[in-house]
Amino acid sequence: MHETLREMLLEYPLVHCQPFPVSSFFAPFLALVLYANVFITLALYAISLRFHEIYLLFFSFGLTIDMIVNTAIVYVVQGEVPIAGCNGMYDMPSGIAQHTGFFVMSVLLYSYEYRTPHIHAIHHALLAAWAVIVPFSLAFFNFNSPAQLIVAYLVGSLGAFAYNVAIVFPIIVPKFPIILQWHIIKWCGYEDNMCCDAFRYTDDDNDDYSSTSSAVVGYAYIPASIKRKK
């Protein structure tokens, strides 16, 4: 089964779009990282609609903005990739690595801002693994140079910090009650279950919390409702 899937990937031009060591069993699977930014962004839009979670919608907006910013930077800088192939000729900073940096930093910032006992070490371990797999894969296939990866992670992380700390948490989240009244938002059935006041707590708060439902999406735990016990 695995060998058959592996052979299918090797024959797929969007995966095997430039020479790489096919002798490695995991090579075709690692090559899929080329499309991780598009897949994660579209998946998060779908998840936000499926779980009717307004915060995930704005998380998706942030990832989209990050991809647009990367495209603009690459156009201006025009830093050549080691081997012109899957990523074209220019990719400085790496778009996929920048997207990963934005995604990872955003999840960490959310888990810190809304510290919940339902985010466990395993979730952070999976997040860390993803943060390592992406640059390893890009370097392994010579999709990007080390400098392009480092700069990408810095730009993505700083972009996520600015977007969340300067815009989402202090400005957008407090306006969720107003945004949720917009016709298109109401029609989609969006709610605020991830940033409501009952979900936020600190280490000094001794009250108990309970979760009525939850879902694990990607590497971040996404609770559907958290409320304070009386």
Q: What does this entry look like structurally?
A:
It is a single chain. The chain is mainly alpha-helical and 230 residues long. The protein has one domain (35-228). The chain has helices at 2-11, 27-30, 36-50, 54-77, 95-113, 121-140, 146-172, 176-179, 183-188; strands at residues 80-85, 88-90, 209-217, 220-228. The strands form two sheets. The chain has a two-stranded antiparallel ribbon. A two-stranded antiparallel sheet has the order 3-4. Strand 1 (80-85) and strand 2 form a beta hairpin. Helix 5 runs parallel beside helix 7. The longest helix is centred in the C-terminal third of the chain and has 27 residues, at 146-172. The model is unreliable at 8-16 and 201-230 (pLDDT under 50).
Compact summary:
With 230 residues, this protein is mainly α.
Features:
mainly alpha, 56% helix, 230 residues, 12% strand, two-stranded antiparallel ribbon, disordered C terminus, 9 helices, two-stranded antiparallel sheet
